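Quarterly update, task 2.4: adenosine-5'-diphosphate-bound model.
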Amino acid sequence: MKNEPIYMAFSTQKGGVGKSAFTVLMASYLHYTKGYNVVVVDCDYPQFSIHAMRDRDRKLVETDDFYKRMAINQFSGLGKRAYPVLCSKPEDAIEVTKDMLDACEGEYDIVFFDLPGTVNSLGVIESLSSLDYIFTPIIADRVVMESSLRFASRINEVIVMNKSKRTKEIHLFWNQVDGREKTDLYRIYEEGIATLGLQLMKSVIPDTKRFRKEMSCDHKLPFRSTLFPADKRLLKGSNVAELIEEICSIIKLDGHGR
Ligand SMILES: Nc1ncnc2c1ncn2[C@@H]1O[C@H](COP(=O)(O)OP(=O)(O)O)[C@@H](O)[C@H]1O
Ligand SMILES: [Mg+2]
């Protein structure tokens, strides 16, 4: 019997809050830096933004000598290939994943689902209720907060508190926090989060331009890439490694199946 991987997602109703960015950052960090075996299931039809990023990344590695050398160095030492990026409709995501896991030879530790923001769309709630953990990026903006808190409390009531569902926990974390001190606004929102019985993570992600840094013809060191982990120099000060470590301890990835 194979070990069942942990299923998780960065998920919320709002678009543009970092779901896909954190999925790629964490998947690449775990797969290429930490040695875990990762799968990403891109369910964000029709953009399939992670799958599209994998295509761009792969093309650059094939055509650009700088990235080609980087890839040879990395993959020869790693002894494994890039993680698979599957595409699926949200309602089929779990089945597509199970089929892939059954058919493959190796074992995987963790599967990331990048689901669309429209919770009411067919299959999204259903797929969310088949995950082990959900992490919700939040931004201190009234419209985003209203929508995120509504989403998180609904998921908490309908899925997490329903013991017949697989989902164990939902956690919120601050993203795109202004460089300056967290203001009173954050404290007010944090009281609201606590009142709703929701859990807030310690790690706070600043608003920083490096999120835009992908692989490109001018040989920028990658931050977001499906073939490489974020460059160490760019990770510093982004709090992304801290966030990932905090998530790993919540989901107990260390002890999982090993
Ligand atoms: N902390 C951050 N600082 C700056 N830009 C960010 C941050 N988090 C996300 N972004 C940017 O916001 C945009 C939307 O992120 P994305 O992951 O595509 O959102 P979603 O998948 O939720 O729609 C992207 O350009 C991403 O790089
Ligand atoms: Mg996205």
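Highlight for this quarter: Residues 6-251 form a domain with the Rossmann fold fold (CATH 3.40.50.300).
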